[in-house]
Amino acid sequence: MNKTITSIACFMLLSFTGHAWAEENLTEDLPAEGNRAEMNHSIGENQEITTAQMIQSIDKNAPDWLLDVASRIKLHGYAHGGYTYQHVNETNTNTFDVKRTLFWAEAQITKRWSFLFMHDFNSVVQEYYTDFRVTNNKALTVRLGQFKNGCTFENPLSPTSMETIDVYSEGVTYLSGCGSDPLFGVQYGRDLGLSLRGELAKGKFAYDLELMNGQGICQIDANGNKRSSTKDMNNKKDFIARLEFRPCTGLNLVATGQIGWGHALVNRPIFCPEITLGEDYRRNRWSVGFDYKSKAFNVHGEYLEGKDGETISRGAYVTGAVPLFKNFDFIGSYDFFNFNVDQKMDMHKVVAGFQYWFFKKCRFQVQYVYKNAHTDYKSFFNHQANHAVMCQMQVRFN
Question: HSE of 65 in the Cβ direction (CA atoms, 13 Å)?
Fold first, then answer.
């Protein structure tokens, strides 16, 4: 009995720490937040040690049921914390911050059926969904629950795989519901719905067809406070399609589109003057992008366009990383987005900096960010240059 209790305690401890001892396959599918290898670094041995194996190394007489549970459950987590200095409107601000503290658990119920739960301790419950693989291969998997939508190339990707500290481009953040759109709210790029996804032709083609609520995972009350909710605020659903083509090693071409309806959470007189609080409005998006990885450099870019009611927004970006020497990279990004083409609400953003991978998927980043305009959540837009210096530490275990 005491050995069983010891084994259970080992399982609980090793579930949190075990995968940090061994290098994870960087091309392994990350069901929570997309699949994109971070950089071309290999720190330590590329070897996987399972939790069940570690329990056996401590207690050779561990019960079979415990080893079975341990082999089916994987725990993951990461945190982003750092320091930001900003110069906006001739005002200087600086602060230490913790942007994200995420933890998620995967349960492999059967060979075809799995479940995932993700929580951000700085925010709300981010994801909970179940996957069922219909075919013997990867041709068709059904996903049901709350998860990242497939609109735009970047949105489904984990912040731990992105080069810039402020993560996604201005266009992706605005159009996918990650934030900066007061009318739609801060939805973290996630929604509740159903997805049919898979890979064809030995992985050369991938698709994702989604039927979503369209409202996102958060709402705003009368006082402007965010609250977690998955209830749709109209009877219309959104359809999202994502197609990927991988013609050769390292190159991925992506096209996405979304047709749906939003429900205005606030008035947005500057961005979309014709849409008022509580109104259902057309909310359509589309994008084409690419991602290329090699030993010499990594680069990805995208063109995006959206239409809210009669207001059109569009933009493009390119972001990349070049290894300078072992585990040390230069990061660069140019980003353009026009929130309302009729109002000439264009924003240009340039990012330059460095990152150092000091352990597996753990890194330290320093970046300079320049914007020729700035916005706030109350629909304010100003063509005035602003600057920022950002530092961030990423710690992740798998």
Answer: 3
